[in-house]
Each structure stands twice: as C-alpha cells, then as structure tokens.
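Researcher: First entry.
Model:
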Amino acid sequence: MKTGIRRRMGVEQRREQLISVALELFGHRPPDDVSIDEIAAAAGISRPLVYHYFPGKQSLYEAALSRAAEELAALFDEPREGPLGARLLRVMNRFFDFVEEHGTGFSALMRGGPVAGSGRTCVMIDKVRQAAYDEMLAHLGIPSPGPRLELALRSWISLTETTALLWLDGRRVPRGDLELQLVRAFAALAAVGADGDEDMAAVLDRILEDEPVHGPFADLVDRLGAAAPSRAEPADPAPAP
C-alpha cells in the first residue's frame, strides 16, 4: 500500500486513508511490531502528519479495530431468500475470507489486544456478536426468541469465534470442511434444544424447511428431525401392572 507520493486530502479523507493503511498493517502483524513511521510511509505522508490526525498509535489502532468490527458485523447481512443452510454457508464463507485476510487483526480484536484494559475492545466485540445474533433471528423470522433459542444462537456465535481462532493456529482442518461443520453445528444445537421443547421444535422445522437434497443439512435431516417432539408420535402408555 506504500505510495511514496503525498496527496492533499480533506481531514476525513485522510483519516479514512490512515485507518485503511493501519487495518492492513495490523491485520498481518502484531500492533507492537508496527511503527508510526511505517504507517506514515505506507500512507505517503510524514510522521508528524499522522499525529495531526491521531494522538498516537493507540488511537489509530482503536480506530482500525472499530473498522474491522464494522466489517465483521456486516458479514452476517445476507438476503433472506432460499434455504437457511445455503444462506449460512455463504455467511461462513465470507466470515472465513475475513479471518484469512485479517488473521492477526482478527485475533487481536477477539482476544482483546493492547486496548483490552480500556474496555473499548469489549464494546466492539459485543456489537459484532449482537449484530450476528440479530441477523440470525431475522433469517429465522423470529423477532422475540425464547430462552432456549437465545442460548443456542449465542452458543453458536461463540463456537464460531473460537473455531476461527483455533483454525488460525496451524489451519489443520480444510477451511471448506470447517465452514460446513459450523453450519451443521447450528442445526445440531437447535436439535438439542428441541428435545422436549415445542417452541424449539418449531424452530428446527423452520431450519430444515426447504432443505434440498444436496444442501448443508441434507445428511442430518433424519437424525435432527427425530429429535423434534412435533415430529414424533407420543409413546403408548405402559400397561398397568
């Protein structure tokens, strides 16, 4: 991204440029290893001019993390059309595109990084998680979830974060397999919650609705469907002794 050419920009335009430069640098190397001089050189401006727009590297780092959080939250925005499994698979594909492109920055954001003590990183992460949660409810068409569905959704979001962080450390599982595994994990969590709960059984029906033969849930439908109370006939009462 090094330009070597200084161009005149407005205040907001220059700030946006510096945030983009910082996001790229912090995304590939630990923040402590990136200097203000490197950021200035990549932006094609002088070191003092960087300080004109940001008080220091910490401030610029926080701005870059905030941008990363916004981009991450937007990844869950998917048209509400077609089978849910296919939609979630597209979301997971975009999510791991982001993780792969901004590995170090993603780890810094999700693990706290040097701004953890300020509490700002926690706020950013919570916004990402809430955006993912809200989008999932929108895909399910359930504005007011019950406690079991909320538990399943938040558990799945946490699982997705943890899985991505572990995958970055060695990438020992093929990425495509992991994306499919996470999509199926959501259906599995819903199936567990559906055991003995009619509301979650209805959610499971909605998850499996219109699932095609070759969809992400195809080989799970029979096993997951068996867990839903609404799909099973009540057992005959045991004969009296």
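Researcher: Second entry.
Model:
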Amino acid sequence: MATIDLNSDLGENTPDRIVGDDAAMLGIVTSANVSCGFHAGSPEGIRETLDAAVRNGVVIGAHPGYRDYENFGRTNVQIDSATLQAHVEYQLGALIGLAKAAGGAVSYVKPHGALYNTIARDERQAADVAAAIRAVDPNLVMLGLAGGVALEVASKAGLQVAAEAFADRAYQPDGQLVSRTQEGAVLHDASAVAERMVRFAETGLIRAIDGTDVRVDAASICVHGDSAGAIAMATETKRMLQDAGITIAPFAGRGA
C-alpha cells in the first residue's frame, strides 16, 4: 500500500488518572480517537484534546465505550440493545458538540476496549452500535478490526467502514487480538513494532503470536495512547513507514 493512516486513542486523561501524552501524540498521528467520557476522560480534558487536534490538523473520531470508568472500559458488560444504542448515541452527541465548540468536526467512530472486541464477533451488539451511528449521523465512518463482524454489520446497515491494524497488540492466528489478560498481548519495543508495521504496509501480513502470518486489509494503524512507550512507538513507526516510501494520511480524508 502507498498510503496509511496513523491513529491513537486520546482524551482519556483526568487529574487523578493520567494515561497518555495527548499533546505529543497529536504531533505524530493523522487521526485521533477521542474518548466520549464513559470509559475515561473528563469534559474539560476531552475539550483540551479536541482543541489540540484542531490546531494540529488531526482528523477527529469518536471513541465510545461501555459505561465502565472504573475498569477503563476493558471489562465485558452484559447490556440490552436499547440501552447500548442509547449509550452510544449519547456519547456521540456529546463529542460532536464538544468538537463543534472547538472548531472541528467528528468524521468517524471507533468503539473502545471491551465494546470494540465484543462487536468484532457479536452481531447483535455490532448492530446496536451501527444503529446508533446511523441515528446520530449516517455519514460517520465506522472504524473497526479488520476481518471483524462489526464492519460487515455496519456495511450492511449502509455505513461507510474502514479497517485498522494494531501496531502494539499481538494477534491470534484467526485475526482477533490476543486478550490483554495473556502474557505478550501488548507490545512495547519501538523498533520491533515499527518493523512489524512496515512489513504489514508492504505485504498486508502481520505475524501472529504463534509465529504464523495473518493477512490484514486495513486503512489505518493504531498505537494506543495509554501503552508504555506509546510516543516512541508512534514516532518510530511513522519514521520507518515514511522511510519505506509509505505516505501517512488520514483514512477519513481518502473516502474510506
């Protein structure tokens, strides 16, 4: 591929829980998945991140999750369809309003954490999220796991979709992400991560945790803002991709 997007999950800091360096990351990535407040962040902190995204010319995406602040949205939640759809609609509405106040606009939606992983395989919850996006703004692009159920369901619902690959997460042989409860699920070596993403950009292949290759068709690469060494990984990945002749540009600006 000649062009790839870099995205990161941001807007997740509060004074008592600082998880990432949004200012630094916004100088690297081309798309920002900004927390909508349910799993992390505060209105004032989210607004600050949105202000910085606008200043840096970074495309803004909404990052809604389960209502699970205590566990950072990374615990599975049993939730009925009406409640999940309302929760996602509420979060999208809040971020769209804040982004407008900051002089920007929301272009896409990337669910967070446990919700993201659940809808990659659960058609019912995937349909609930797709319905929420359609109800709020059917022009929003749905960003999700390459090969996951969520993108198939969203596409059938009439939404534009785009897939992403993960720089700092280990893959299972079937293309799903390795659970964070397992050793080796999160990667931290900046050089190794960058080399992995250059190989992906050039071949469409990512080495799974068992040593086999997984084929991934994706328009964006995610580096989690709360991962240890996130800035170093994002910096090195961008540098090595550009050195390999890959253009870094937002997927939402390419008609994804």
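Model: Note on the second entry: The radius of gyration is 17 Å.
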